[in-house]
Specification:
Layout: H1 2-46, H2 56-63, E1 64-69, E2 72-77, E3 86-93, E4 98-105, E5 112-119, H3 133-136, E6 149-151, E7 159-161, H4 167-187
Parallel strand pairs: 6-7
Antiparallel strand pairs: 1-2, 2-3, 3-4, 4-5
Length: 192
């Protein structure tokens, strides 16, 4: 009788654990889908495509090929967009937290198309200004060779104005951008 109770207990425990794990996996899949739709929406905004939330995934998949290499996913334009623009996330340490950015590189692999900051927790009014449109617009069509530089007064095609009073954040953002481009160069080749 004792063996029967032990077996019954183990069967019930196994069933409860299986249900718990299946529920966790289901929740993870749902949250992943929500996260992807938000990411796709942010990428579409970079291309000035204002799409309702219920159409985001459909429009995105029509206009982008998805290629995952290692731990990085690259989204390559096709369809109604200029073909061959590579969009990808990259992150690195900021002054107070991780800074996560989206880089869009033109098909010639010599210029950025655009850049967006997805997440950051830099000092409000200083380093946090990296999310402002005025700052981000400087990266439109900036040259990425030999590297992007954030400087006090930009005068070259590969330079943008750093944020005054946020030298550390600017320097760290420069490193994040250039490391992301280096990583992309290893896997994505220039369009012929």
């Amino acid at each position: 009788m004792k063996t029967f109770k032990t077996i019954l207990f183990l069967m019930i425990l196994s069933t409860v654990c299986t249900i718990f794990l299946a529920s966790g996996n289901y929740a993870f899949m749902k949250f992943s889908a929500i996260f992807n739709v938000r990411l796709y929406g942010t990428i579409l905004e970079m291309f000035e495509m204002d799409i309702s939330e219920d159409q985001v995934e459909e429009v995105f998949l029509k206009n982008f090929d998805i290629q995952t290499v290692g731990d990085t996913t690259y989204y390559i334009t096709k369809g109604d967009l200029e073909p061959g623009i590579v969009v990808f996330k990259h992150d690195g340490p900021g002054l107070w937290s991780n800074i996560e950015i989206l880089l869009a590189v033109k098909p010639n692999r010599k210029n950025l198309y655009k850049m967006r900051v997805i997440s950051q927790a830099e000092t409000p009014g200083l380093g946090a200004r990296i999310v402002e449109k005025e700052f981000l617009s400087q990266f439109d069509d900036v040259e990425i060779r030999p590297e992007v530089k954030l400087v006090k007064f930009s005068s070259k095609p590969n330079e943008v104005d750093a944020i005054s009073g946020a030298t550390n954040t600017s320097n760290l953002l420069q490193i994040i951008i250039n490391k992301g481009i280096e990583k992309m160069d290893l896997v994505i080749k220039e369009e012929e």
